[in-house]
Design a protein that fits this description.
50% helix; 11 helices; alpha/beta; 258 residues
């Protein structure tokens, strides 16, 4: 029995290209396709495919968020991320989301087919051609940044939405010392404020990406006064009040074997 495949991609040409590719692959059958996130869940529920390919960027939403929803609904569903975005942080988001494979749209057709076949038989494992190299790059960057234990603690507290006075109280240090730690953290990350620090930390894998964390970053941007976007803005953080904690972890996820 052929592998039943649903294609979710906002680009008509991409869907056409995948259909043509699969038409030459006897063990895989395209049973449905759609271009919108809003359509995907209903089609997948109705067609019960073995594998779904999902583009990271859909016209009406985040493809990785859709992948997370699909994984929560059906653990046995093979999920292949096909994307024109090859950045390391997108790959690691895919890994954290629980997809089965990550394939750039520039990959050879054999790699795309192999990813679909892998997803059909090992939905819970993750494969990506560039994973080892991306992990090495991330480790090199983390070693170069080299946060101290106290700086990592400050980053976690910033992630949790604490103001500088609250950080000082939590760490049993003075506010001036807390400001120094925050300023040193910003300098190591090459940023000017909390929002930039959280985005950069997620990019480099110092904190995990989660949807709530992304909302927190956007909230921090909305609440930051214009003056806080200049270098050395740790001083302005002291006036901020604690925010709702985000569902993120300050540790890297354990990679799953392909």
């Amino acid at each position: 029995m052929p592998i039943r495949l649903v294609i979710v991609d906002g680009h008509t040409l991409t869907r056409f290209g995948l259909r043509e590719l699969i038409a030459r692959t006897p063990d895989i059958e395209v049973v449905a396709e759609c271009g919108l996130k809003a359509e995907a869940s209903g089609i997948i529920a109705a067609m019960r495919p073995d594998v779904v390919t999902v583009d990271v960027t859909l016209p009406d939403g985040d493809g990785l968020q859709l992948a997370r929803e699909l994984r929560d609904l059906r653990a046995s569903l093979g999920i292949v991320i096909l994307t024109s975005r090859g950045e390391d942080d997108v790959l690691f988001r895919a890994l954290e989301t629980g997809v089965s494979a990550f394939v750039p749209k520039t990959a050879p057709t054999d790699e795309v087919v192999a990813a679909i076949r892998h997803a059909a038989v090992a939905a819970a494992s993750f494969t990506a051609a560039g994973l080892a190299v991306a992990l090495a790059r991330r480790r090199t960057i983390q070693d170069r940044i080299a946060l101290s234990r106290r700086e990592a603690e400050v980053l976690a507290l910033l992630r949790d939405g604490l103001s500088i006075p609250a950080i000082a109280m939590k760490m049993y240090i003075s506010q001036s010392t807390a400001k120094t730690y925050v300023a040193r953290l910003y300098e190591k990350l090459g940023v000017a404020n909390r929002a930039q620090a959280l985005m950069t930390a997620m990019h480099y894998g110092l904190i995990r990406y989660e949807q709530d964390a992304q909302l927190r970053v956007l909230d921090a941007i909305d609440k930051s006064p214009p003056s806080s976007w200049s270098r050395g803005s740790a001083r302005s953080e002291s006036a901020r009040q604690p925010e709702r904690p985000a569902a993120v972890s300050a540790t890297m996820p354990t990679s799953r074997a392909s």
